[in-house]
Design brief:
The chain is α/β, with parallel strands linked by helices. The protein has a domain at 12-208 and 279-301: TIM Barrel, CATH 3.20.20. It has 12 helices and 10 strands. It has helices at residues 30-42, 58-67, 96-110, 129-141, 155-168, 191-198, 236-239, 245-252, 255-261, 265-274, 289-295, 305-315, and strands at residues 3-5, 12-14, 16-19, 47-49, 76-81, 115-120, 145-151, 173-177, 201-204, 279-284. It has an 8-stranded parallel beta barrel, surrounded by 5 helices. α1 (30-42) crosses α2 (58-67), α2 (58-67) packs across α3 (96-110) and α3 (96-110) packs parallel to α4.
Length: 333
Amino acid sequence: MEFRYLGRSGLKISEISYGNWITHGSQVEEDTAVACVHAALDEGITTFDTADVYAATRAETVLGRALKGQRRESLEIFTKVYWPTGKGPNDRGLSRKHIMESINGSLRRLGTDYVDLYQAHRFDHETPLEETMRAFEDVVRQGKALYIGVSEWRAEEISAALKIAEERGFDRIISNQPQYSMLYRVIEEEVVPLCEREGVGQIVWSPIAQGVLTGKYLPGQAPPPGSRATDDKSGADFVKVWMRDEILARVQELQPLAKEAGLTMAQLAVAWVLQNPNVSSAIIGASRPEQIRDNVKAAGTRLEAGLLARVDEVLGDAVVRDPAETRSPATRP
């Protein structure tokens, strides 16, 4: 495993991280979830990403139990706040009340005194940004989080938060967690240039486009039984964004490119996002330990410029560069 700095901070994270969005607490049994976490650790992954909303808080609990007994200083544990975790009017958003109560709940479920990175899971248009930033600052000052980041924020939102931090002397955002893959490149036009200038790193999710870039979904054929596209609990609606025959046919044309690079399709997809110098880590998920062992082989891979150009030629107009081009999965938690 190789490691990269998270943005312009001094924090190093594994360039492949393990996330448990739609697996822990919902898709797989806990013993399988624990086996996946332990497989990640065995492969050198030290960075683990979750959120309070995943599986209605159960995902944090499962991850905490799976990591119990590990040397805390050797891990980077990330979680997030924003989406509803209860029925009350203050059980959501980025108000000071919700942030301060949510960090305590996350720490309790994770079984740790602090998280390495606390992230705003989306931008809150109903709460003053300065209130949010001051609450995050206090979370850091209290030692409950070491760094702060955001997820799926637009360039202008990140810029506004950085300006407040500079003016008030608050801790700066060091990361953004966007969707990013060969098929979904929305961040490239505005978010990445801003973040490169400001020292904010990307921790990207869905680098394999929810399994579509593995090539297992074939045009004109029903999804394989038990795959994510057939399981409502594991995001079938999310995968459907990519399940058009014209997209699946383009993905199949990537097979010879992966073979030429000596990689599986999944490894090629993960390696592709890691070629972007602003990407600090690619999040992978898994419902079986062997998926982790396969995907981590993308770590340290350097793809030639000619191969990257051919990927662009193959995918062509199947690539999404503007969220208006599709009902973006980025709107989902």
